[in-house]
Amino acid sequence: MRNVCKKGHIKWTLHALKRIRERRISSVAAIDTIVNGEIVAFYDDDKPLPSWLIYNADSVSPLHVVASTDGDKTYIITAYIPTSDEWESDFLTRKE
Predict the structure, then answer these.
(1) Whether 51 contacts 43, CB under 8 Å
(2) Model confidence at 59, in pLDDT bands (50, 70, 90)?
(3) Which of 3, 47, 49, 53 has the most other CB atoms within 10 Å of its CB?
């Protein structure tokens, strides 16, 4: 997925575009998260394709991006700024 994304083969879902606008997240930060971030979770049951939750602490603020790939394109599903209400201070561990 990272290599596909690096090549610029990216498709944004309408949901992702809406959310990054609402949340004032730059597309560059979302892409940087996919390329350089840490994988938090793999959702192999997601449809139509399995997806990954990826975390990046190197962007302006902590960022989570959910993305998937079919091998030809990286699909950005959503992006959000994790909060301490739902995540431990490392933003890698979901609170129970």
Answers:
(1) yes
(2) low
(3) 53
Dihedral angle over CA of 84, 55, 20, 14, nearest 10:
-120
CATH class of the domain defined by 2-80:
alpha beta
What are the tokens at 59?
């962007």
DSSP code for 94:
B
56 backbone dihedrals φ, ψ, rounded to 5°: -135, 125
Phi, psi of 27 (to 5 degrees): -65, -35
Beta strands in the chain (DSSP E): 10-12, 38-43, 51-56, 63-69, 74-80
User: Tokens 């959503």 identify what position?
Assistant: 78
Provide the pLDDT for residue 6.
80
Domain boundaries, the chain: 2-80
